[in-house]
Amino acid sequence: MCSVTTGSICDVLPAAAALLGVSGAVDKLGLVEPVGRVGRVLVILVDGLGWHLLPELACDAPLLATILAGATGRLSHLVCAFPSTTPTNLVSLTTGAQPGEHGILGFTLNVPGTDTVLNHIRWRDDPPHTQWQPLPTWFERLTRAGVEARAVLPEWFLGSGLTAAAYRGAQLRPTRHGQDYASQIAVELAAAPGLVYGYTAELDTAAHLFGIGSEQWHAAASNIDNLLTRLVEALPTDAALLVTADHGGLNVPADARLDLDADPRLRAGIRVVAGEPRVRYLHTQPGATGDVLASWREVLAGRADVHSRQEAVATGLFGPVTPRHLPRIGDVVVISRGETAVLATGHEPPETARLIGFHGAATDAEMAIPLIAFAG
Q: Which SUPFAM superfamilies does the record match to this protein (predicted)?
């Protein structure tokens, strides 16, 4: 497998638009030359399909095995946005912008000026999505250019704040549990020229609940390979299929977990806890930031990078950060190394501590993702 990074998740939809001939769309991924101009593009995001997981996944995925062997498709190495978490990367995919620009800077975020923690998966209409995520999406840009843009999504996604922030401008096509997803996508793709987007969370769910490498994870890999195989077979001659991911992941053993709510040294001076176990945003009591930094650096020495907000922004991990988004980042930012996870049992649902697979930090295992391109 080639490991040269050719771009980021932010480049995928601009490249898709360039394949469709949209004026001003920049193809940083070099897809136009090998694929050519097309009338239809299908983009599938496989949640949790990390680059480093591909060889193990291929054991249960014949199509993926042929891709890794170089026999079909075009495989490229990309990176996702940081934090390597789904809400952040869905919006980076659909806006083409870094998290510091669009403002969805983590799985959960403190709403500035309050003690409220916004969980982006459970977000409805407060705060309003156009204020919380102000950038235009590529679905909106395509629509303005006269190109149809449709998203085939689980019906329970519709009406959520994250769906509005990430997919506004798309014609939403709900799919229900038990429906034939491949057929539904194929129908949308055949119905009219333009962009069709699909999403599947099966692999990521299995990784979280049962662990990467588990029997359930391998079964999910087989199901996804079947989905992609059917989509390749149904691809019209004037179409391209782009398959990518939002992050990778790793298993976190029990002895690599810390619970900040069980350690008085880590609890001291904390006002609000946000982020997720691999990337923590700590909002401190007035005047306590220095002490919190010192305590966390001592306790997590060698296991995490502990930064002030200013230091974290200066790393460039978030991309350029719009000033209005700065307070959403913690006064202290804790980025796990290795297999470490920082639980917060007093602040999060109990099921979080029961997860096996995690992601969110800046390791290659979490940040490296594939882009697989097929031409009809």
A: Alkaline phosphatase-like (SSF53649)
> What are the beta bridge partners of residue 275?
280
Give the residue range(s) of CATH 3.30.1360.180 domains in the chain. 254-355
Give 260-310 as a DSSP string: GGG-HHHHTTEEEEEEETTEEEEEEPTT-HHHHHHHHHHHTTTTEEEEEHH
Decide if pLDDT at 5 tops 90: no
77-121 confidence digits (pLDDT tens): 999 999 999 999 999 999 999 999 999 999 999 999 999 999 999
What is the C-alpha separation between 376 and 369, in angstroms, rounded?
23
**What is the architecture, at CATH level 2, of domain 7-97+135-250+363-375?**
3-Layer(aba) Sandwich (3.40)
Mean residue pLDDT across the chain: 96
Residue 304: count other Cβ atoms within 10 Å of its Cβ.
24
Per-residue pLDDT tens over the stretch 286-308: 999 999 999 999 999 999 999 99
CATH architecture of 254-355: 2-Layer Sandwich (3.30)
How far, in Å, CA of 334 to CA of 200, rounded?
Answer: 29
